[in-house]
Task: structure prediction
Amino acid sequence: MVSSNYKGARSRNPSTVARVRSVSQILLTVRSGEPGKAFGEVRNEVLRWLANRAGRRLPDHGWAGESFDMAESGAQPVSAVADAGMWFCRSSDADKNVPQRSWDTECGAMLHSNGDVLFGCRLQCVARGESPPFAATVPGVVRQIIETQHAYLDGRRVSLSPWHVDSAQEVDALLGFLLDSQRFRPVIVISLGGSDGADGNGAIDPAVLAKRTL
Result:
């Protein structure tokens, strides 16, 4: 939070002015024949992720899907806000190596009127002192959602495994996806074709790439 008297605060003590940098942001669509159940499962996956990072037990009413706020002294702040068909949470982890730098994660789930569940996650770097360069990452909770739910991005199911295009139908599907005007994210294609028409070795390992570019 930056004071409204920004110039004055900055001139008096520059270290108190927080610099916020976006690290990653993602919005997934979770599809299920039981939207209410999927909404609860997504929320519980986030709660499990929060519980592993909070360093203490989450309140029982939090596990029941209600709002809670854990900001006691000496612990990582964790909070959640619940409303009809919506649930949002926020956690802040202090950087283990850089003083006065923290990593703030915000997650949210919402029941859409079309029956989908929208899941969003944003990671930010907040620094009040020195902030050396860092590698962009996606919070592990995103991987949990992809592993446990039918999550879609740009209309296509997201997976931790690469899409193996090995038939005429798959080629048509790939071309359609590449030419889709509603697609916003880039597509990386690796050629595996050998001289005999069978799969050969690509320049890089597709399985490793799929995991690293999640």
The longest strand covers residues 19-30. Helices lie at 6-12, 35-54, 60-63, 140-148, 168-178, 206-212. Strands lie at 19-30, 68-70, 78-83, 86-94, 101-111, 117-127, 151-153, 156-157.
